[in-house]
Amino acid sequence: MPLRFTLRQLEYFVAAADCGSIAAASQKLNVSSPSISTAISQLERELGMPLFVRQRAQGLKMTEAGRTLAAQALRVLDEATEMTRLAGAVSSTVQGPLRLGCLVSFAQIVVSGLRRSFEDEYPAVRTSQVEMTQAEIFAALRRAEIDMALTYDLNLPPDLEFHGVKNLPPYVFLAPEHPLADRESLTVHDLATYPMVLLDLPISSEYFQSFFTREGLRPVISERTRDMAVMRSLVANGYGYSIANFRPLNDVSPDGKPLKFVPLVGELRYLAMGVLTVPGATSSSTNAAFVEHCRAKLNE
Q1: Helix, strand, coil shares, percent, the chain, to 5
Q2: Which residues contact 153 (CB under 8 A, 6 or more apart)?
Q3: Ramachandran angles phi, psi of 44, nearest 5°
Q4: 0.70 exceeded by the pTM?
Q5: 53-85 pLDDT per residue, tens
Q6: HTH lysR-type domain: from which residue to which, for each copy (predicted)?
């Protein structure tokens, strides 16, 4: 059965019972007498019984039901105060479970290391992760299935909060024997006539292709993959170049072949990597600590 009264109504009821009059309770709580009187009347109506006998000359006299319920109401208010205290203690301590969502492209490069270093710094925290697309991240945050997510600042909805931690310039991935591999930097005009291996993830693929359309060009897409590791292997084996905003920590593909990474320059929008949350989530010390940990570790 849903609650039919509020803690505020209980507070006014207990104060009136303790003081013996509406006027005295009004002074104690610094609340107007009509507000207290209305709250008590609403509480009596919801409970279906009188709590006081109103005596014009003598103030309030509690009924037998009122005395019984006043004692219980005081315990409820004490428990509510304790719950508030505990919530404050938990929110100010870096502890407990932390459920992380992450884009697939981040999962194999940075997330495991961030989790490990965060748990080493805060041993009372236990993290878990799940790899998702951008749309899946939005839905999971709204359903409270995850606490926060590592993602890009692409197509973000207004009901979620993005906390940027690192700017990510684009790189061109190339096999060492590719004709462009020895350049110090490249533009989309340099790339336009060569086969491209597109990292074909939702939203990300549109972002990479926009580099070309902004210049009136179309990339020659020869291969598509949703897996960062597969993309690197295809590039290393000569199936084309690719573009990504996160440079791997080593220059070897998953099948052991070498790769080269050349900065892509021009009028390009850099992506921001960050932590996405529901509004107000960083009021929790654990969540706030993770955001700051990401900033520190990813910008070392």
Answers
A1: 45, 25, 35
A2: 162, 164, 271, 272, 274
A3: -60, -40
A4: no
A5: 877 666 788 898 888 998 898 888 888 877 766
A6: 5-63
The H-or-E segment that residue 229 falls in is helix 228-236
Strand partners, 132: 103
Task: Using the Cα atoms of residue 40, residue 41, residue 45 and residue 51 in order, give the sign of their dihedral.
Answer: positive
Domain assignment of residue 58, given as a range? 7-91
Q: Indicate which CATH number applies to the domain containing 212.
A: 3.40.190.10
- Looking at the structure, tell me whether residues 147 and 230 fall in a common domain: no
Count of all residues that appear for the chain in the document:
300
Residue 276 bridge partners (DSSP): 149, 162
Residue type at 181 in one-letter notation:
A
pLDDT tens digits for range 4-17: 788 888 898 899 88
Residue 274 maps to a domain = no
Q: In one letter, which amino acid is 245?
A: N
Give how many domains the chain has, as a whole number. 3
31 is written with which tokens?
């609340």
Nearest CA to 40 among 58, 184, 59, 57? 59
Residue pair 184/175 in contact by the 8 Å Cβ criterion: no
Determine the residue type at 13.
F
How many C-beta neighbours within 10 Å does residue 278 have?
Answer: 16
Alpha-carbon gap, residue 250 to 238, rounded angstroms: 18
Residue 156 and residue 130 in one domain: yes
